[in-house]
Amino acid sequence: MEQRLDTSIIFQPVQPDLREVEKLLSEVSAVPSPQLSAMLSHIFRSGGKRLRPTITLLSGHLFHYQPDVIIPAAAAVEILHTATLVHDDVIDNSPRRRGQATINHLWGNDIAILLGDYLITAAEELAARTNNIKTPELLAQTIMAITRAEIEEDFNHFNLNKTREQYYRQINDKTAALFAAAVTAGAILGKASRDEIIRLQTYARNLGMAFQIMDDILDFIGTEEELGKPVGADLRQGTITLPVILFLEQHPGDDSLQNLCEQHNNVALLQAALQQVATSSAITECSHIAQDYCGRAKQALGTLPDGDYRQALTAITEIVMAH
Amino acid sequence: MEQRLDTSIIFQPVQPDLREVEKLLSEVSAVPSPQLSAMLSHIFRSGGKRLRPTITLLSGHLFHYQPDVIIPAAAAVEILHTATLVHDDVIDNSPRRRGQATINHLWGNDIAILLGDYLITAAEELAARTNNIKTPELLAQTIMAITRAEIEEDFNHFNLNKTREQYYRQINDKTAALFAAAVTAGAILGKASRDEIIRLQTYARNLGMAFQIMDDILDFIGTEEELGKPVGADLRQGTITLPVILFLEQHPGDDSLQNLCEQHNNVALLQAALQQVATSSAITECSHIAQDYCGRAKQALGTLPDGDYRQALTAITEIVMAH
């Protein structure tokens, strides 16, 4: 977990900006409807690291930083991320997230669906404050990519024939797209050149891939305390991630996963499959793949303006690996 | 039902534009993912009247009509409307809508949640094509208003103390907001003056109020065939609408609704309450109130440029009453 590393190198350079982002989130929560306001406060205080808005702020600072447009964009990125979590928790029927009760657990699925819709559009409204049509467009395209990937994933539940390529394409859309949107918003609003935007997008796409792979590893080898939710959630729902795909490549004759796919709700079979994958060399291999993505992410930053902001972006790749 | 009236006066003036809107909807459906594409085609072909995009087109035609921006805005308005229906059907657990199977019925709730998110953001992406930041902002604010109203409504289920004022505020946000967004998009993109925009918004707000009141009446006096869904759906879910509020004002001692509120799932009590309200004078009173809203809607159009487009907007108020 990142607590092991000193994260100040990442957040320190944008500390005052992050306080402005928090102020905006408080403003968004301060609606006249008391129930809605309570839900918004609950969700914004549920312990997110604010990694994605930090990336937007850092990207903006690399160029012509304009707080009046980059702060709303950063807040919009965080709200959009939050929206996806609220709907994911309904879909996954999750009672907890980051150790806190979820919206669906506290207020029920119907309210959580509506709140997620509210959050998506609150993000779009903030994005419009940047007075640049590319910002709401970018965020819209990001949710389109995420939901497209999640719909595809849903149709692939318990499909042990899922390939690495399918997995990579899915996590590129499901996770890396939002990291890419985060840097793009900062870079566009900072008036970066086309080449600089592409470099940052390459950074963010690779970072996002590494982030998701490490997350998928943790679902096998983490503890419930670290995760803030039960271990093995992916496999329980039938989501086939890289550790499973690599394990099956290495053990084509193994039937622990096959058995689970035939009896989805059998807890003993789930435990056996989790154990098999968690103790296999697939985990180390996944970690190497994530490391490669991080290497590519770092490399993409190479010729961008040096200084605290670039160093912070570089440090994020290390945080991801220490995840 | 509107079949009784000749609706050509409404749709005829924008027939070629509506064909362009349909083309855009087909483009939106033509995504590489076969499952997503099937769902999008299903939902866009589920027999909507295209009333809201028609309103956008008519509003645009009153001024400097620019198809390259007004067509995407009209399509975005229709997609946004569709998104709200997809999520409402999950929340209401509806198997059918307009006589067709719903997304949740065909593909399950998880997929319907994701598809609704996809549709909201597909609408925002189309709105960005207008190259006017006000369009995505307007649509975002509309969904914020709708979800805020629906969250409030959810907390008021089976609350027989709900007042007319609460009801009017809720339907203003839940229904009239999207009619207002539809005219506003057309008017702004048609470069209408501030005063003209306000007149059209007054028209649309009043039209939307009338539309929802007539819809709420139909839920009591319509037939399952007319509605494309079972009668009494609102009351079954505990949604207290104007007919109930007026009935209770007139019959403060009546206990048919009180009994239902104490035993939500009792079918005999539901039938009794439906019957009581449907045969009461509350229905006629509601209809008069809707008529008043329509009058105000027509009046607001008064000084706007005369011709086929304004006549079509006027005719919509008559369609609503013949609903």
Strand content of chain A: under 5%
Q: Mean pLDDT score of chain A, rounded? A: 94
- CATH class label of chain A: Mainly Alpha
Q: What is the CA-atom radius of gyration of chain A, in angstroms?
A: 20 Å
Summarize the helix and strand pattern of chain A as letters: HHHHHEEHHHHHHHHHHHH
Could you describe the 3D structure shown?
- The structure is a homodimer of 323-residue chains.
- The first copy, chain A, is mainly α.
- Chain A has one domain (2-322): Orthogonal Bundle (Farnesyl Diphosphate Synthase), CATH 1.10.600.
- Helices cover 74% and strands 1% of the residues of chain A.
- Chain A contains 17 helices and 2 strands.
- Chain A has helices at 8-11, 15-29, 34-44, 51-61, 67-91, 103-107, 109-128, 134-155, 164-189, 194-221, 224-227, 233-237, 242-250, 256-262, 267-278, 282-301, 308-322; strands at 96-97, 100-101.
- A two-stranded antiparallel ribbon of chain A has the order 1-2.
- In chain A, helix 8 packs antiparallel against helix 9.
- Chain A is globular and about 55 Å long.
- The model of chain A has no long low-confidence stretch (mean pLDDT 94).
- The A-B interface holds A 31, 33, 35-36, 39, 83, 87, 90-91, 109-111, 113-118, 120-122, 124-125, 127-128, 131-134, 136-137, 139-144, 146-148, 150-152, 154-155 and B 31, 33, 35-36, 39, 83, 87, 90-91, 109-111, 113-118, 120-122, 124-125, 127-128, 131-134, 136-137, 139-144, 146-148, 150-152, 154-155.
